[in-house]
Amino acid sequence: MPARKLRIEVYDWEGNKYTITFEGKVTRDKVVQLFDLVELMGGVSDSDLDWRDPSEISRFEKVKLLIEKNFPVVWFRSVDVKFAYEQEYGEPIKLSTVSTYLARLFKRGFLVRRGPPNSRQYRLSTELIRQAGRAGLSP
User: Fold this and answer.
1) Number of helical (H) and strand (E) elements in the chain, helices listed first
2) Runs of H (alpha helix) within 1-122
3) What does the pLDDT look like over 26-78, one tens digit per residue?
4) What architecture is domain 54-134?
5) 77 — phi, psi (to 5°)?
6) I need a labelling partner for 53 at 20 to 30 A (CA). Which of 18, 27, 46, 59 fits?
7) Mean pLDDT to the nearest integer, 83-91
8) Does the model's pTM come out above 0.85?
9) Neighbouring C-alpha atoms within 13 Å toward the C-beta of 10
10) What is the DSSP letter of 2?
């Protein structure tokens, strides 16, 4: 089995960000131990983990997961999501695509928005923020 690299980024209930990087022979037991550590630090629970390979997730789902991970309680713009997407997944995405996805997420009630179209800002809906707070994932 070739050496692999696993990176976990977690936000605790105070908004602190932890990044754990593991390089080498990644086994199921080691991954479970890492997630136990994450849970002890106040991060995500087993039910919150998405075990799918990023190459199997659609661009829309990637944007949605990225927003939940990187912008849990703050206002952001489409250019912020574009930059974070390209950093996270290492692939380009058009700003118009990001804007379309954000508009769809707004229409589905996942996001709230403010401002005129040329300087629009988005944030997770208040209900989603409350649910994350009850689960211990954000302040």
Assistant:
1) 5, 4
2) 28-40, 59-70, 78-89, 95-107
3) 777 887 777 777 666 665 444 454 555 656 778 898 999 899 888 888 899 99
4) Orthogonal Bundle (1.10)
5) -115, 170
6) 18
7) 92
8) no
9) 23
10) -
Please determine, for residue 117, whether its predicted confidence score (pLDDT) is greater than 60. yes
The continuous run of DSSP H or E covering 51 comes out as: none
Q: At what angle do helices 78-89 and 95-107 cross, to 10 degrees?
A: 110
Q: CA 63 to CA 66: how far, in whole Å?
A: 5
Per-residue buried b or exposed e for 26-40, using 16+ beta carbons within 10 Å of the residue's own CB: beeeeeeeebeebbe
Band of residue 127 on the pLDDT scale cut at 50, 70, 90: low
Distance linking the first and last C-alpha atoms of the chain: 40
Token couple for 15: 């908004």
Q: Distance between alpha carbon 99 and the CA centroid of its chain, in Å?
A: 17
Separation of alpha carbons 89 and 91, rounded Å:
6
